[in-house]
Amino acid sequence: MQKKSLLALLLVLSLLLSGCALVTVDEAKDMARTIIDVNGETINKQTFINAVNNTISQNSYYNQLYAQLGMSAQYSTDTATVMQEVADQYVNSLAAMQKARELGMYEFTDEEKAHVQEHAKEDYDSYVQQVISANFSDSELEGDALREAAEAYIKENGLATLEDFTKSAEDEVAMEKLQDYVVADVEVTDDEVTASLTERAESAKAQYESNPEAYGVNVNNGSTVYYAPAGYRMVKQILIGFSDEEKAAISDAETALTDAQAALADAQAAVDGAAEDADKDALSAAVAQAQAAVDEAQAKTDEARAAALAAAKTKADEVYALATAEGADFDALIQEYNEDTGMPENGYAVREGYSAFVESFTNAAMALEKVGDVSAPTESTYGYHIIRYAADVAEGTVDTEAVRETIKSGLLTTKQNEKISAAMAEWVGAAAVKTYLDRAN
Known about the structure:
single chain, alpha+beta, Chitinase A, domain 3, 2 domains, 4-stranded antiparallel sheet, 3-stranded antiparallel sheet, 9 strands
């Protein structure tokens, strides 16, 4: 049961209350006016405005992260929109917490009480450290004296206390119990799993027919697959790569080559764009000089690569001899010698012409005739690959216990979320709800 996703909606109130405690409470009459009223339990303007501002700040932060990834904004920062969202969250959370009290979810066992106290203290201690970082960075106080000063600051400014964090932890435990109560009878049948597997397999088959390489990408990235197209096999490898010093030498040589090529391009551009009265001989000489620098840089790059490959080849030949010896344990050799730290446990999916890997690797992998065959060391820009034909991939629906468990888990979460949403709508519908968002402007 994926409690985090199901609890997200239910725990909004406790999270927002913690957030509103981070600012000074305004005692003015206007800020004490009610904005949300659910069965007589209210949220005042000060708390509501703080929650809205905190949400806008949080949404802005997340949108900045998305922008850094080249993605569009995912969260609204429009005040009116956020106000309505926060109001809905408060209404839902208040109704849920009232239901939890009605059902006795706030009656805790000794174990639950200990859990509440432990997590409240952890969160409060972390919060005190945040206050210290934000307000006492230049203080000469240390140890207990510094903490006492921070706690005094918290008290003087009406910030979140240990009692606030304890209440939040109690809310979380109660909401977990309420969730378990609501979804206790939710089940997923084998027939539902089979139907979903069939649907997913058909969708995957259509995708792979138009883009066969997508299957290899999915498998090699660790994604769950539901259908396998024809032509794939699984291979494992032992990569014998380059030392850090050799990699640095190659990188430096390639950088010098790139710079030399750029200088050559500039020299040639000067010739092409020269005026009629320009010194053509001097410009041509500059091109020739730049070309010589490129040739020299290319030679040094080739030399660095050749030296690294020669060292790797010696070791690769030794490992290949071990891999092809009678009774060899290829998996054990992988553990000892493989420098490809990203290879999945079951190896890589590969097919003829698979372009996600370097061509020499793909060709060597597909040249192996039967399962268990091992390739001679195969050169690439990464070093030398010793490749073992690990298994065939059968065309058709992938129907394994692991796949069924993935589907079942996803279906269960969906059904649980639907049950939670329906219960929430029922609780809110039965509640006396009043909202006064115009007062928040």
